[in-house]
Amino acid sequence: MSSPFPLLRLPRLVLFDVFKSLDIGEKIKLSLCSKKISTEINNARLYSQKVIVDLDILRRKIRVRSEYNEDIFDIVNCYYIGISRDTQHYQIGGRTVPVISFTKGINKYWRSQREGFLSAIRHLLKMFQCKILTDSSIYNTDSQLEFNMLTIRPNGSKNQNLVWNQIFRELELVEDFSISSILPLDFKPVFTSWPQNITIMNSDWFTLEHLLACTCTRIRLLQSHLENNCLDEVLRKWKAGGFPNLEYLNIHSENIAFTGTTILGMHLMELDGMVIQTDDGSKKATVKAEFGNIGMSVTPSQ
């Protein structure tokens, strides 16, 4: 019978190479074996593979995967149902948790679904360079977590509206934020914080006042109701030094017309291809304009 291999006695750089050779599931399962080996894996995070973490709240599942899905591992967040003979206990998020292992994943049992999700995410963030994505009804955010992408699909329920209002208070934690469906008429989001980038697929409810207050770097509004006079006000504010973070703006609206109110004193066709500058000369923007659409890309002036 062979003797156990003294893994933790290896020199640190050699140990890091061993961790790099493991696939996603092997590394996660190994991290659960002991606090000491979990600490060593966390120390090797910058040498680790980059992973995408998909949060599927509806199916109570976290999928950890490589960029092109060659390597996939599922963490199923189950409700606590007692002990089975296949259950082992591991430390996750500072708590001892019942876990059942299977080939490409684990089932972990928590009394609180929210606690189960957040503890697993924190555990993964220490191990990997994570890009966190979700298009599900995420019901709570956490000040220690930053989401690369968050997509919401409101359904109009009272409880969900309360959740979205909480999320809108913590959008600075999100890099890319997307609202992908039509909001209920009685739900009016109040943006008390802004993400880095925002995309709203059905933005008829997103008013000029919303846009003038927006501090995002990239703004994309589809199916908007904004008109020429709104865009004139937006571009004049930008020229005067407003929207200091703005790098890209794109607005689709059937109310953007060739005729009617001019924008910066020009009709839409005249504005297309125009390079405009801020009043202080520090930035310039190339404008692309056509019926139903206007966009601009902002760069520092040379």
From TrEMBL:
InterPro entries: F-box_dom, F-box_Sdz-33
Ranges for domain F-box: 4-50
Pfam families with a match to the protein in the record: F-box (PF00646), FBA_2 (PF07735)
Transmembrane segments: none
PROSITE patterns to which the protein is assigned, alphabetical: FBOX
Protein name from the UniProt record: F-box domain-containing protein
